[in-house]
Structure formats: structure tokens, C-alpha cells
Amino acid sequence: MRVTILENGREIDVGKSHDKEKLMDMLTYPEVEEAIKRRVEMKAKTYGQEVIINMKEHRTESVYK
């Protein structure tokens, strides 16, 4: 199976390439991946916090599960 990728408005023939790294480099954007990693980390910290129901117990720093 031949693979053709459209990049910047022009087609690039990858052929019968089994070079996974080359294909991933052409299909991914490192800046976007880093932004997603930061977003996931921020959400995990937010949703992973212990919720204190009893207000008598007060902690100054966040506690994660």
C-alpha cells in the first residue's frame, strides 16, 4: 500500500515506507503535544485533589490522591 501525505498544500509520497519515526514526524506537532501534556497535568492536579468537607480541618498545601 502506498502512502501519500498532504503537507503545506503539496502531496508527499511516502511510498511503502515502514519508517514509523519518519511518518510520526510528518504527522505530529511537538508544540501541540507539549501543550496537551501541560493541560492534562493541570487537569489531573485539579481533579485529583482531596476535597475537605469538614472546615475544622484546614490544610495550606494541596494534597493529591
TrEMBL record:
Its EC number is 5.4.99.5. One of its GO terms (molecular function) is chorismate mutase activity. PANTHER family: CHORISMATE MUTASE, CHORISMATE MUTASE 1, CHLOROPLASTIC. It catalyses: chorismate = prephenate. GO terms for biological process: aromatic amino acid family biosynthetic process; chorismate metabolic process. Keywords: Isomerase. One of its GO terms (cellular component) is cytoplasm. It comes from Lupinus luteus. This is chorismate mutase. It is an enzyme of class 5 (isomerase). The keyword Glycosyltransferase does not apply.
